[in-house]
Design brief:
Elements lengths: L5 H22 L5 H16 L7 H16 L5 H18 L9 H10 L7 H12 L8 H8 L2 E3 L9 E3 L9 E5 L6 H6 L6 E4 L12 E3 L3 H15 L3 E6 L4 H12 L5 E3 L7 H10 L6 E5 L9 H8 L3 E4 L13 H8 L11 E5 L3 H6 L12 E5 L6 E9 L2 E8 L2 E7 L4 H16 L4 H8 L10 E7 L2 E8 L5 H16 L5 E7 L8 H14 L4 E5 L8 H7 L2 E5 L2 H11 L4 E6 L9 H18 L1
Parallel strand pairs: 2-3, 3-4, 4-5, 6-8, 6-9, 7-8, 9-10, 10-11, 11-12, 16-20, 17-18, 17-20, 18-19
Antiparallel strand pairs: 1-5, 12-13, 13-14, 15-16
Length: about 600
């Protein structure tokens, strides 16, 4: 019998044997199935405490898979890597960890295997633990309490940890769960079984299950910051921090994607960009990761970019752009530029600050105190002749934006599946950062040609609508005047190189512009008129009222809705084949609902048409 359940043990064994057998075929050796089974059983028992005694049935399950593995011998390395990632992800998940296909240990396994012969497989599989170890794997309870300025309560004997987690839903293996005093989800903490877990808290009276080890600290945020700083001091790789008024999430993802086949890479996930996210990633990233890429944000009243930078201590800091995003909380665009420059406050002594060389606002900001001292670390990217990395040529096709550029004295070309002049500049910033990381820029450029655009950030979709093709340019995730105009230009460039007939738009009102709200909404309507839209769907309460005279005079068809839910049916009934639809708004306007609704509506209509 298998101690942790027959299915679980067999799946882990299958994943390992598959990896071992594939390794033997790839390296040209004659690794026998019996040898693979022996190695797999030994590894499972040593690493996970599972004694596998029944394997004959599992071996039969492998027979068809092995034929497939043989066929991979001469396939692309990418195919081999994908297979290995899947197998290792399965093993890790069943072992109680939370690894994903993009995390460092999968890449470490691949890198180690493809450089070594099959006879060393067992040692390599065990060595993956070294690549996957975070700072918590090296800390005993006493040292952890010392670092966090806390004290253990209710801990009987030593407790070890794999990860620090902020939500009970992420509990896997043995974790240190953070329970904040003001957490709205405290009931979930108490309801979750806490076997194999401990809790870091500044509220020991919250009523946690009896016997749960508690690390009691004075303030949770301070203790998390102290632990993150400790992890950063012991990390071996390079750190990249990205901020900006637009494009930072996509730039972060593109850097990670461009490096992913050359180095072990970690990154902040999604669009999360706060102090706690930076700390979470820092503490939980394997110490042997080659490059870690962080997104740093600036919300209303400050998300403390300088605090995030002090934790990350980046070797490369990037400011993608400066625009009046969140200007209502900062008063002026010049003040926003100064806040963004805080990304450099934790810059490594041998680091670089990448800025938009075409932006006069950021250029003026770095010429004033206290930022004047940054002059010697600045790398400029853009179109201007004085830029260190410079766009030589660019053009938009239906496949994306073609770019020819000088990247720190090297000429490169690439096509990215994003549209417009501003994305050519963002791609240049990405290649410059990759070059400064010491990686192959040409290989990264090739890799980025297949970059998957993030949801709601300039995605171009084609839907088979009634009597033609509906194009959708979906950039619903965020909108400030700068990103709005840039995406309108990109949309217009896409329109010019396609055969769509009408331009139509779903637009959400701006947020967080303070006293500038009226001026920018008038400006927005003027832009929509100038770009030749034939029909508009405007979502907001009263923000567009000031622009109604200009809109009425233009004779453009328009519809007003307080929420997008009110307008979905109207939008769906108005669109036609050969329309190109532009979607743009702040994330809170829920314009993320538009594209899925259109897909569902069109699919239903097509099905009914086929059945008629």
């Amino acid at each position: 019998m298998i101690e942790r359940g027959n299915v679980e043990g067999m799946d882990m064994e299958r994943a390992l044997i598959g990896s071992l057998k594939l390794l033997g075929r790839f390296e040209g050796s004659q690794l026998k199935l019996s040898e693979a089974v022996s190695l797999a059983r030994s590894y499972i028992k040593e690493r996970h405490g599972i004694d596998v005694t029944e394997i004959s049935r599992m071996c039969e399950m492998l027979s068809s898979d092995l034929e497939f593995y043989v066929g991979l011998k001469n396939e692309r390395v990418l195919d081999l890597e994908i297979l290995l990632r899947r197998q290792w992800r399965l093993l890790s998940r069943l072992a109680g960890d939370t690894y994903t296909a993009e995390t460092a240990e999968a890449l470490a396994l691949f890198r180690a295997i493809t450089r070594t012969d099959a006879q060393n497989t067992m040692e390599l599989l065990l060595s993956v633990d070294h690549y996957a170890r975070t700072i918590l794997n090296y800390l005993n309870m006493e040292l952890l309490a010392e670092i966090t300025e806390g004290e253990w309560v209710g801990a009987a004997g030593q407790v070890s940890f794999d990860r620090l987690v902020f939500s009970p839903t992420r509990l896997r293996g043995m974790n240190l769960l953070v329970a904040k005093r003001d957490s709205a989800a405290e009931a979930a903490y108490l309801a979750k079984p806490l076997v194999n877990h401990a809790i870091l808290t500044d509220n020991p009276e919250a009523g946690f299950p009896e016997g749960t080890p508690l690390l009691v600290v004075r303030r949770v945020n301070r203790s998390i910051a102290l632990l993150a700083h400790y992890a950063r001091r012991h990390a071996a790789g390079m750190f990249v921090a990205v901020t900006g008024s637009a494009g930072k999430s996509s730039v972060k993802e593109m850097i990670a994607e461009g490096l992913s086949h050359q180095k072990l890479v970690s990154r902040t996930m999604g669009t999360s960009n706060s102090f706690l996210v930076a700390s979470d990633v820092m503490i939980n990233t394997p110490l042997q990761t080659d490059v870690s890429v962080y997104e740093c944000g600036l919300g209303v009243n400050g998300s403390a970019i300088d605090v995030q930078s002090s934790i990350i201590r980046p070797h490369i800091a990037i400011i993608t752009s400066i625009a009046p995003a969140h200007i209502g909380g900062y008063g002026s665009i010049e003040e926003i530029a100064k806040k963004k420059l805080q990304i450099a406050e934790g810059l490594d002594e041998n680091g670089f600050l990448l800025i938009d060389g075409d932006c006069p606002i950021i250029s003026r900001a770095i010429e004033s105190d206290p930022y004047r001292e940054l002059q010697h670390v600045i790398v400029r990217f853009g179109f201007s002749d004085h830029c260190n990395s410079r766009i030589v040529d660019w053009s938009v096709t239906e496949k994306g934006t073609y770019i020819e550029a000088i990247v720190l004295d090297e000429r490169h070309t690439m096509t990215v599946p994003l549209y417009g002049r501003h994305w050519s500049k963002m791609a240049l910033a990405v290649l410059t950062a990759i070059k400064l990381c010491g990686s192959d820029v040409a290989a990264a450029a090739t890799r980025l040609a297949g970059f998957k655009t993030m949801n709601g950030r300039g995605q171009y979709l084609k839907l088979c609508a009634d009597k033609g093709l509906l194009g959708v340019f979906d950039s619903h995730h965020t909108a400030n005047p700068g990103s709005m105009y840039a995406d309108l230009v990109a949309f217009d460039e896409l329109y010019k190189c396609t055969t769509y007939r009408r331009k139509i738009a779903v637009i959400g009102a701006y947020r967080e512009l303070g006293e500038h709200m009226e001026r920018h909404h008038i400006e927005l309507i003027d832009w929509l008129i100038a770009f030749g839209f034939e029909e508009l769907f405007l979502v907001g309460e009263h923000e567009f009222d000031v622009a109604m005279p200009a809109l009425q005079e233009s004779q453009i068809a328009y519809h007003l809705f307080q929420t997008i839910e009110e307008g979905l049916k109207t939008v769906a009934s108005a669109i036609k084949g050969d329309d190109l639809l532009f979607i743009k708004a702040p994330n809170n306007k829920d314009l993320k609902l538009v594209t899925p609704y259109l897909k569902e509506t069109i699919a239903k209509a097509n099905y009914e048409s086929e059945q008629a």
